[in-house]
## 1
Amino acid sequence: MSAHASASLAARPGVATPYGRSLLGRIGFLPALLVLVVVGMSATDPQFYGPLNILNILRNAAFLTIVACGQALVIIGGGFDLSVGAVVALASVVTAKTMALVAAAFPGNDALAVACGVGAGLGSGAAVGIVNGLCVARLKVSGFVVTLGTMSATAGVALMITSGIPVYGMPQSFVKEFGRAQFLGLPTAIYVALLVLAAVVFVQRRTLFGRYVYAIGGNADAAIVSGVGIRRHLVGTYVLSGVLAALTGILLTAQVGSGQASFGGDRMMLQSIAAAVIGGVSLRGGIGRVEIVAVSALFLTILGNALNLLHIDSRLQPVFLGVIMVAAVALDELGRRRKSRV
């Protein structure tokens, strides 16, 4: 098979051979766990299926889904983004600070304050993504090392801006009419997550960018020979990851009513990677679907909620996440070994 054919094959996310079998196997793995947890909790604790708890689960799953979609794109392209949790915090404080300053300078002009704040928040995420992408694509530094460094730096900047104190002064319309608003009984964050998910699915299936990301993660050398611009596409994945993490920070800020440097953190970063891996995204790159990642994010949120309702010690909860991640990676590796023997 020629290099061009190899890249074309890797660029087709729907190809039926090894990837198709792996995807089908993982699709069967996730719903089984999801149904098991839901049925078990429904029989154990009536609070689990209460309306307020269900809304809480869906809202938290929406936040994780948005971050995990960006994380999945980076991993599919063969990278890692450890900075997403810190970007959530940075975007939160930048958004709140900007809104407060603009609202004070232009009293009564809420639309301007909100627009400037959201733009600044998304811009901060894009800026971190550009730094990550350029270091990985141009300087050839490991994505793990680069994003580990930017994670620390970004979290430090967020703390410097706030001195550890929540930022208030945002327009109440942003908080009440957007962050805490509900449409058809569902929080705004859920609709935003669905729009993001639909957009990323479209990018993966219908755009050259999406196909090239699969090709780069599957076989970078073949992609280069085929004329794929690896640098700009790799930078693009990190920028999208940063922007989506920033969007999550903005949504959290709108819900809580303040910008906080404590948002996101290591927990959001670990959960986003877990959602991607459990959802079938290969750590080797080139394989994964964000719609399955969304199901994985819902599963992780339900699992965390169930552990809280069962009063499981918070120190033990990461153990469950770790076991599930190891199991998912082990299944992926076993699947690869079986295919290599064929």
## 2
Amino acid sequence: MFSLVQKRRLFFLISMAVIIPGVLIMLYSLFTTGSLFRLSNDFVGGSIYELRFTEAGADETAIRDVFQQFGNTDISIQSLGATDEHRWSVRANFQDEEVQTNILNALEAITPLDRASLRVEQVSGTVGQEVSQSAFLAVIVASVIVTGFVVIAFRQVPNAFRYGVCSIIAMVHDVLVVSGIMSLAGLLFGWEVDALFLTAVLTVLAYSVQDTIVMFDRIRENIPKHLGEPYEVIVNRSILETIHRSLATQLNAFFIMIAILLFGGESIKQFIAILFVGLLTGTYSSIFIAVPLLVAWEKGEIAFINQPKKDLTPLEGEA
């Protein structure tokens, strides 16, 4: 039988090779920009302009020049819809009504604006902070609930608490990988963290936990079926029996996301890209981190945990 759990140290090293550079990138971003990520107006506040020109002639450079003339230093410009629709979304600094009027007049000097479809909104950074705090609280509560659920569901398995802890560690693994990628994309491509990023992270965590629990559940089923086999062999058997289902489910989602990345609108591509990376690392962590980590813990290989090695063959009374 091909053994995956015996290569657990390799899998752990691969994860560290991704997570450590990601953490360093976030620290670099923190020291150079004052934030772990490039934040959108959803978090720092500002003005949002939804513009539609009735004729061609306005491009990103011309629009940016107009906003910079009125003191805007942090500008995000995005084309909306088809090219012939001449629609743009602009996120800029807070401006009073007089400055907004001057900006719109300057834009109309480039090419006529459709004033009927014009929309200008002020976004408070407090809203974004409240959303991020709620998302952080949701992750903490979800972690506690997942741990409790796993302990109760796996109560007939020795050391059920370890299954819950390994599930949470896999969640943290996924958050660190996605955060590192997002921080790097912010530095290289100007990607900004917004409410959709939080949605993507929470979605990734849900997928990751569900996939991990499926793996653990097969281990629980196989322990009484294969009495006398070493614990490591039972776990490896469980992975091989479940991996095809996990990969088949995730591949369907990957194909859909790739299609959206290739043919979808610009406004959703960043969200889909982060979701794609998150589901990829979530699938990896469920198979190659959570379950091997459980074996390493059972065998006393985790540092700072005084767990001597012992014979882990399940006893009939423990099944």
## 3
Amino acid sequence: MSGDLKLRHLGTGEELLLAPAAEAPRRPALAGDVVVWEATENGTRVVRARRGGETGTIPGPFDHAGEPRVEGGAVVLTGWLTADEAGDTDVFLYETGQAEAVRIASGPGQQRFPDISATHVAFADFSEDPDGRFDEDARDLADIVVYDRRTRRATLRAREGKQAFPMLGAGERIAYLEWAPVHPEPKFEQFELRIGDIVAPGSGDAVAASIEIASAPFVLPAVRGELVEWVERPEVGEASLWRRPADLSAAAVEVPGLSGLELFGPSASATITVLGARSPGGALELRGIPR
């Protein structure tokens, strides 16, 4: 079930409708005055972007597109080259003034789940995987690739096992999820969050946290500014929100004041963390926590 996509001003509470439920909006991302999201347009998955009060679909040399992220007006997304959801995908970059999104990463199989910063793009490369794609498969293999937006050069951060869902936003550091050697199904029930220097070899990346999320919905950790944050939802016990310095200079600490609540999220800016919270039998609400 899909709902309306709205933009809320956290100071005034004012809301703006970005997309009605009929368009099945999902996967929103926000940076400055630019909002991007997935939607369904004439039966096809597309990426929509709103800037300066104008909303439009991002065009490109692909059959359909999704998984958008935005930074400073630039949008990175995954483009499917055919109608097959399990088929070949590449990573595309769209910047203001361009006629269409431009391919910045390709190769055998799927390149997916990109993120973007002012200086880099990062994505997961499944070319080493036996079937070349992301799916519910305990044999999945992938590496993280970092693309330098200035030099237009890509660097493979090779590690054993599967690494995916890179996250930029903590300065010159990169975080991602890793499954090695455990491959639970669904994947997000258990994983390690690793983080390292974006210009250093991936072999030196350290474990920031080992995370357990016992049930859907599954939401990625938040990596922003000086902190990484994540929700743990164990099979037994209460959900909790944790945070740790992005440079791993101190141990993780639990954020107080959320005992007894179901927690979903988080998402963060440099100054505030927002997550969904629900008391037993209550309605889901958004909570803002200073960082």
